[in-house]
Design a protein that fits this description.
Shape: globular
Strand order of the largest sheet: 4-1-3-2-5
CATH class: Alpha Beta
Distance between the termini: 30 Å
Number of helices: 2
Number of domains: 1
CATH architecture: 2-Layer Sandwich
Structural class: alpha+beta
Order of helices and strands: EHEEHEE
Helix content: 10-25%
Length: 94
């Protein structure tokens, strides 16, 4: 499918305990982006976004500021091969 991408995203800063995962799921669902988001043991948040390139980039932009209580210090993005493996966007618990 043309125009679809996959991004592996790791967000650093104060991004746990501030509704970041839930807000990311909401933003992804609004845009039709599939994949998942989860907390990492070191305090970062990791996600996989798959979907329309423009929508995935919008979601990455959201990750730069997150929720009102979040304090994002960095967003690392690795572009990967689109797989189409996801049916929805979910929160993973480890």
């Amino acid at each position: 499918m043309e125009g679809v991408v996959r991004a592996h995203v790791v967000v650093s800063g104060r991004v746990q305990g501030v509704y970041f995962r839930y807000a990311t799921r909401e933003e992804a669902s609004l845009r039709g982006v599939k994949g998942w988001v989860r907390n990492l043991a070191d305090g970062r948040v990791e996600a996989i976004f798959e979907g329309d390139e423009v929508k995935v980039e919008e979601l990455i932009d959201f990750c730069h500021y997150g929720t009102p209580d979040a304090k994002v210090s960095s967003v690392e993005v690795t572009w990967e091969e689109y797989t189409g493996e996801f049916k929805e966007f979910s929160i993973r618990y480890r």
